[in-house]
Amino acid sequence: MSVTKISQSFATQVTPDRMFKALILDSHNICPKLMFSSIKSIEFVQGSGEVGSIKQINFTEESPFKYVKHRIDALDKEKFMCKHTLIEGDALMDKLEYITYEVKFEGYGRGGCMCKMTSEYKAKEGVEIKEQDIEHGKDRAIGMYEVVEAYLLAHPHAYDFTQEFTCPIAPSRMYKALILESNQLIPKLLPKFIKSVEVIQGDGGAGSIEQVNFTEASHFKYVKHRLDELDKDNFVCKYTMIEGDALGDKLESIAYEVKFEAASDGGCICKMTSKYNTIGDFEIKEEEIKAGKDSAIGIYKVVEAYLLENPRVYA
After folding, report:
1. Whose C-alpha in 133, 204, 206, 210 is 20 to 30 A from the C-alpha of 114?
2. How many CB atoms lie within 10 A of CB 109?
């Protein structure tokens, strides 16, 4: 069984973290949206995106193929690297056992990245892979990457900023404290900066609007958050800052997604993704993003310390 190894790379003006998020972590959402004429859907038939998951790509009638299945073999979110294997589908053309891929996104130039892909074609016994077969595969991969690059350049705040930290508190307790009971707990723990948190529309469920009123010691007067989604079983919350002087004159809104995932030591991993929607051509400075991230982490750490000192609260 012969093996043909091919390497290819191209430079892009998009940062490696955004390319990695779009093409690897969120490909099942963005690729059918951008390439709707050839990709009908992408779904996980096993797992949910972690190592060992199997992802099926279903093509439209305009494509020469019906479907393929990829198995995720390695995923390094810090180094923006993924290894996956095409294990099933008519794209193997009755000639291949499988194709393995290793994809890396490395920093390059001023804020861009170098996308590198190594492919290994495992031919069936007695089959010789023709150069044109490999060229077709390379062209399709580069075409997909260029479509995603164009989208990210046109939408500079898509896949913006993600932060995470580990915490010794169980996800259920952090979720209750920071999401479900935040209007009661946060003013109590941060009285110097937060005067009150009140639900001004709704009952705390999806669609509700919550107003945070700050004290005179704060830089801001108030902000309003709209609760977009609340998943109490999976400890997920999506909400959007829709009003307030914290938005300044540069932002229309800031959308947040917060997740609390169980860790092996009984604690959790707190993850937050923020998408900044600017007004016109304004660009958000890195120091402004950092200030927001530091503020969020600060609140989380205060709540974590309180729950450690009071182990029965929200237990």
Report:
1. 133
2. 10
Question: Are 189 and 298 part of one and the same domain?
Answer: yes
User: Residue 88 carries which side chain, given as an amino acid letter?
Assistant: E
Confidence of residue 160 (pLDDT cuts 50, 70, 90): low
d(CA 242, CA 240): 6
Q: Do 119 and 135 meet the contact criterion of CB atoms below 8 Å apart?
A: no
**Which residue, of 154, 171, 196, is where some domain finishes?**
154
pLDDT tens string 168-197 = 999 999 999 999 999 999 999 999 999 999
Q: What is the pTM of this model?
A: 0.56
* Residue 278 pLDDT exceeds 80: no
State which of 95, 120, 154 marks the end of a domain: 154
Residues ≥6 apart with Cβ < 8 Å to 234 = 259
Do residue 201 and residue 98 come from a single domain? Answer: no
Residue 148 has pLDDT above 90, yes or no: yes
State the CATH number of the domain containing residue 219: 3.30.530.20
CA distance 105 to 278: 26
Query: How many Å apart are CA 165 and CA 167, to the nearest integer?
Result: 7
**How many structural domains compose the chain?**
2
**What's at 169, amino acid-wise?**
I
All residues at 6 or more sequence positions from 26 whose CB lies less than 8 Å from its CB, including other chains: 159
Would residue 274 count as lying in a domain?
yes
Q: Are 281 and 274 in contact (CB under 8 A)?
A: no
For the chain, percent helix, then strand, then coil, each to nearest 5?
30, 40, 30
Q: Which residues contact 159 (CB under 8 A, 6 or more apart)?
A: 17, 18, 21, 22, 26, 152, 275
207 φ, ψ (degrees, to nearest 5): 95, -15
Q: Is the pLDDT of residue 305 over 90?
A: yes
Give residue 257's pLDDT.
92
The answer to the question of residue 284 being in a domain is yes
Q: Is 287 exposed, middle or buried (0-12, 13-18, 19+ CB in 10 A)?
A: exposed
